[in-house]
């Protein structure tokens, strides 16, 4: 019972820790608010790593939040903001790597492995039928 | 054929091990450099020591330059200052970008540890630094005669980094036509 509770706690902590950049600091109209919060989770805090911008207390992350805020306020699109940041900090700033030739292996590997495994499984099962 | 097939899982496993092994030797602190071979981003900052002077992209034209991002609160900057003075003694042109600092502290700091810079742009808000894709202090940019960024050192300098990568690169750039 205690193990179940502990597991439940772990799972809820895992899903519950979704940080939201403070709305008091960055007041925005609702439509832009959504864009801003979305962007906050797309970019990496560069100096702390494995945290997104919304999640981080580092100085540089705060500066980048401010920069994104000003750009959202000025009416820039997600794409424009993304380009500005990747031009300066490289693809590394993105939490989700782009789908481009250099990252094809990264994105296709799971699918390829799944297909391979399915083929292997098919042959394995067929062979057993014949020998049986 | 059948034998080969039965070996496939083992081969796949071996491949996986190779990739994971390689992954172990990757340094997550090592960050790719954007801007390499590209025009240096805009810079237009008042000089720390003379209010009438500005540090701008003009300063990177016609000669090889170095731009170092530093601050008086930065411990590593103090440790590498002797190396920057060494570069200045070898007649390389150094500029400073004083990052998120207080003028008085920065001036005191230079008096204490030496000033290798021809000009020092004051970036109190850190906005020029972001425009340059700076992560933190210290960070050193190497700029060619046409104002293009050709090299970058993130983090503290060491004598071996200076001797083995910085100086050879500077010498190579100096041989390029202006």
List keywords for this structure.
heterodimer, A: 132 residues, 5 helices, B: alpha/beta, two-stranded antiparallel sheet, 7 strands, elongated
Task: Characterise this structure.
- The complex is a heterodimer of chains A (132) and B (178).
- Chain A is an all-alpha fold and 132 residues long.
- Chain A has five helices and no strands.
- Chain A has helices at residues 2-16, 30-40, 59-73, 78-89, 104-131.
- In chain A, helix 2 (30-40) runs antiparallel to helix 3 (59-73).
- Chain A starts with a helix and ends with a helix.
- Helix content of chain B is 40%, strand content 20%.
- Chain B has helices spanning 2-24, 75-89, 103-113, 127-131, 159-175; strands at residues 44-46, 54-56, 65-70, 93-99, 119-123, 139-143, 149-154.
- In chain B, helix 2 (75-89) links the parallel strand 3 and strand 4.
- The relative contact order of chain B is 0.18.
- The model of chain B has no long low-confidence stretch (mean pLDDT 91).
| Whole-angstrom Rg of chain B | 21 Å
Helix content of chain B: 25-40%
**N→C terminal distance of chain A:** 45 Å
- Which strand order does the major sheet of chain B show? 5-4-3-6-7
The share of residues in helices of chain A is: 55-70%
């Amino acid at each position: 019972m205690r193990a179940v509770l502990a597991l439940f706690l772990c799972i809820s902590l895992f899903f519950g820790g979704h940080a939201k950049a403070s709305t008091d600091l960055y007041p925005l109209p609702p439509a832009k608010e959504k864009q801003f919060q979305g962007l906050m989770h797309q970019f990496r805090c560069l100096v702390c790593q494995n945290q997104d911008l919304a999640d981080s207390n580092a100085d540089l992350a705060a500066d980048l939040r401010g920069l994104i805020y000003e750009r959202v306020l000025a009416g820039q699109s997600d794409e424009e903001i993304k380009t500005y940041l990747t031009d300066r900090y490289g693809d590394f700033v993105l939490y989700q790597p782009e789908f481009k030739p250099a990252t094809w292996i990264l994105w296709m590997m799971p699918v390829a492995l799944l297909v391979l495994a399915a083929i292997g499984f098919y042959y394995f099962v067929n062979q057993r039928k014949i020998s049986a | 054929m059948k034998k080969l097939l039965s070996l496939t899982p083992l081969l796949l496993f071996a491949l996986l091990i190779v990739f994971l092994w390689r992954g172990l030797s990757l340094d997550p602190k090592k960050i790719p450099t954007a801007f390499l071979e590209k025009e240096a981003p805009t810079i237009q900052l008042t000089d720390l020591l003379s209010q009438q002077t500005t540090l701008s992209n003009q300063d990177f034209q016609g000669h090889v330059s170095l731009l170092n991002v530093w601050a008086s609160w930065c411990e590593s900057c103090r440790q590498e200052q002797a190396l920057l003075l060494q570069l200045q003694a070898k007649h390389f042109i150094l500029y400073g970008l004083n990052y998120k600092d207080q003028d008085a502290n920065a001036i005191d700091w230079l008096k204490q540890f030496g000033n290798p810079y021809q000009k020092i742009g004051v970036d109190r808000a850190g906005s020029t630094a972001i425009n340059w894709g700076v992560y933190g202090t210290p960070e050193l940019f190497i700029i060619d005669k046409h104002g293009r960024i050709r090299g970058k050192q993130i983090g503290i300098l060491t004598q071996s980094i200076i001797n083995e990568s910085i100086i050879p690169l500077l010498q190579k750039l100096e041989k390029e036509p202006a």
